[in-house]
Amino acid sequence: MSAYLLRRLLLIVPTLLGILTVNFFVIQAAPGGPVEQMIARISGTSGDLTERISGSGADDFFENDNALETEAGIRYRGAEGLDPEFIEELEKMFGFDRPMHERYFKLLKDYFFWDFGESFYKNETVLSLIAQKMPVSISLGLWSTLIIYMVCIPLGIRKAVHHGTRFDGWTTTVISVAHAIPVFLFAIALVILFAGGSYFQWFPLRGLTSPGFDQLSAVGKILDYFHHLALPITAMVIGGFASLTMLTRNSFLDEIHKQYVETARAKGADEKRVLFGHVFRNAMLIVIAGFPSAFVSMFFTGSLLIEVIFSLDGLGLLGFEATMGRDYPVMFATLYIFTLMGLLLSIISDLTYTFVDPRIHFGTREGS
Predict the structure, then answer these.
(1) Where would you tag: which of 50, 173, 220, 221 has the fewest CB atoms within 10 A of its CB?
(2) CA 18 to CA 21: how far, in whole Å?
(3) d(CA 305, CA 194)
(4) Which domains are seen in the chain, by residue range?
(5) What is the DSSP letter of 68?
(6) Distance (Å, rounded) from C-alpha 294 to C-alpha 308?
């Protein structure tokens, strides 16, 4: 097993390198980069640009673009557009004055030392931005995934054991309806019903904690934290439990009808021993295999709309805004970190395989 883990850890390096390389050259070659977006933003201000970017107005105009705060003397030449010298300065600020291959190797060197640079549009380093947003995304992803697994696995087992009964029928109907409705509709409905939309004001709508969070007691902080998370986690759980429940049900049904189960019953084993002593460890393998992707999905992509609807400033929203604004340092850093997380979680998933079924040994192969 130790040799297998070492191989998997070593494979992380070329995998990260390949994913980062492909995305770097695809994104860099795509039109509408940060320089083009900044030129369009400045040129689009038309006639009153001179007044807005001169004197004290410059600070307001570039309040979200720290790299340009000192550029109060921009020369805008009407129909001719921006001064070519200023465009060259823009390219230098964003690092596009160097060839693509130089930017690529600089990126690899910086990432080797975990230097992700500074955001193009926010006066902060990428690591500090990620650190600020991480608690929100971890909270949403971790609690949603844990609750989904705690609900879906017992429910899926029960549906398999009572296959064809009334319980199996009506739960399948409920699951199918829940699966057909988009997650954001559940979220909007919860806001309307319970967050002051049209009916009740039982839950807060913004943020992960209340303004006076630091003054609360330990118990008060815990209650306040989960009070803010109640609605977004409920929306994510309702929208995400259908697939795992049916996967667990079908996996157990497939194992229950195999020959070794009939043999165990013929030898006098009771149903509980057959189910949890023989069927469980085989049926759970496919469920465990999907844990890394499920967690990463909840952690990043799955929480994007939830973060927007409930005004939660997390990594999903940060990555979306960076993509729309072509904030390359933030884009590449979030891609790198989430890829690394996925690879490490897949290794943890393999270790869980051996815990569920000790017969599995990843360190040995036939013919080796």
Answers:
(1) 173
(2) 5
(3) 18
(4) 31-98 (no CATH), 126-356 (1.10.3720.10)
(5) G
(6) 20
Least Cα distance to 185 among 241, 139, 144, 239 occurs for: 239
Name the nearest CA neighbour of 168 among 178, 159, 158.
Answer: 159
pLDDT, tens digit only, all 368 positions of the chain:
677 778 888 888 898 899 889 988 888 777 777 777 777 766 664 334 334 333 333 344 344 444 443 343 444 444 455 667 777 777 777 777 788 888 889 888 888 888 888 888 788 888 888 888 888 888 888 888 888 888 888 898 889 888 888 998 899 898 888 888 888 888 888 888 888 767 778 888 777 788 888 888 888 888 988 888 888 888 888 877 888 888 888 888 888 888 888 888 788 777 778 787 778 877 777 777 666 667 666 666 556 778 888 878 888 778 878 888 788 888 888 888 888 887 887 787 777 777 766 666 665 554 44
Distance of CA 110 to the CA centre of its chain: 23
39 three-class SS: helix
Q: Model pTM?
A: 0.70
| Helix spans in 195-278 (H) | 218-256, 259-266, 271-273
CA distance 8 to 96: 36
Written as six digits, the tokens of 350 are: 């393999």
- Both tokens of 212, joined, read 């006076």
